[in-house]
Amino acid sequence: MTTSHRVDGLAFLNDDVVVSKSSKPGCIYLWSWSRSFDGKGKACQRTVSAVILAELEWSTTDMSYLTLSTCPAKEYVFCGDEKGSVWMYNLSNYTTAWSTAKGKRSDKRIPPTQILKWPELRANGEQLTEVLINNVIIDPTFTYLVALTSVNITAIWKKS
Question: pLDDT category, 1, cuts 50, 70, 90?
Fold first, then answer.
């Protein structure tokens, strides 16, 4: 049985592991580029099945295009959600197992390492409650995390 999902976010975690997100299933997929395109008669195929390595727990929102990002140097994945939270996944304990030729798929969804909650903010005297995190990025030194929102606010967190 084959299922397909519309991918609305895509990034490389390393040379082989691709991270992709679809809004509907409530998870983020990690899959092997090399094993998905291993060259065994697939040159003429229009559709290729991804070799899934793991699934990350994520929001069950049906909102599309909440962009994910990665920090390959630290083996982290980041993704915002419809409630203003930033989901963070440290995958350094998993990537070595995935790099083996027969790396086994993780049996359970991997939970986030941390979820940064949206702070209580007021604009023009009113509390901002409906904030989508559209984009998340981390600086190369892994000191600052920047989130862009649907209400034209840029939030910056500094690692202490």
Answer: very low
What does each C-alpha distance from 130 to 4, 16, 59, 85, 121 come to in angstroms? 30, 36, 15, 11, 11
Q: Which amino acid is at 95?
A: T
CATH number of 9-158: 2.130.10.10
pLDDT > 70 in the chain, percent: 87
Could you count the other beta carbons within 10 Å of the beta carbon of residue 89? Answer: 25
Query: How is the chain split into domains, by residue range?
Result: 9-158
Whole-angstrom distance, CA of residue 32 vs CA of residue 35: 5
Instruction: Evaluate whether 48 touches 41 at the Cβ level (below 8 Å).
Output: no
Q: What is the pTM of this model?
A: 0.86
